[in-house]
Amino acid sequence: MGGDALPLDAAAALVASLGSRELPERLWDVLSARLPLCHLSAARFNQPHPEAVIASVDWLFARNINPAHDTGEVAQRYVERYWREDPLLSHIKPLQDPQLVLIRHNDIPAEDYAQDVFRNELVTEECNLLVRGEGGVYVLAVYRMAGQPSFSLEELSLLRRWVPLLLALLMQHARLTVSTRRSELPSLPRLFDKRVATDGVKLSPRERAICHYLLQGWSAPKAAHAMGVRESSSKTYVDRAFVKLGVRSKAELFDWCLRCA
After folding, report:
1. CATH for 23
2. What is the Cα–Cα distance from 118 to 125, expressed in whole angstroms?
3. pLDDT digits (tens, 9 = 90+) for 156-190
4. Do residues 192 and 122 both lie within one domain?
């Protein structure tokens, strides 16, 4: 592994490529010169504040060890089917300060997600650099594959020191470009938000969040786990929201939304 400091010419090249398709290539060159990698990716999880529901994810870019390898299909499967199963969400939702999160794919409980997105690609672990910025949480992830060593403490320490610079570049790049793929908030939560705004209903962030989860078919206990609150607290949020909305059940909540369509 090379020195800890990012060379000035490398930093200048990254800055010069912001907003262009060259950034993933230059970022790959900088990182792979210092640590063995098989893949890198960048995404933004759209969440205005830590208590809000993560509405969608923007896939910003990816680069594989084989430049000819098409990462588009994997990215598409992730944003369409799997992103809500990503164990990284438990770190993203409450995030305040920059973090570094290591995930080993053998430990992922969602078997289909781990198999389809990672094991089929021979990926064994990922190191995620997270920071909260404008509109959500930005994630730069670097990956190891079978045959490569696990991330060492020295490598993790290096990445941690680089978090402020790399994620500042990523946020600026996102402002200058558009995502390659976006998952969408399901239609019922969108209708819910539209009617809440139209009717002037004053919901707290957690009351709104629990309604979003219920409208997506989640049970209250599962929603409580996703929100990081006790089941008794989630029931309180449901009861308060239902009183404000004038509904008495999930069925009436669905009907309340559909009357806005």
Report:
1. 3.30.450.80
2. 9
3. 999 998 888 899 999 989 888 866 666 655 567 87
4. no
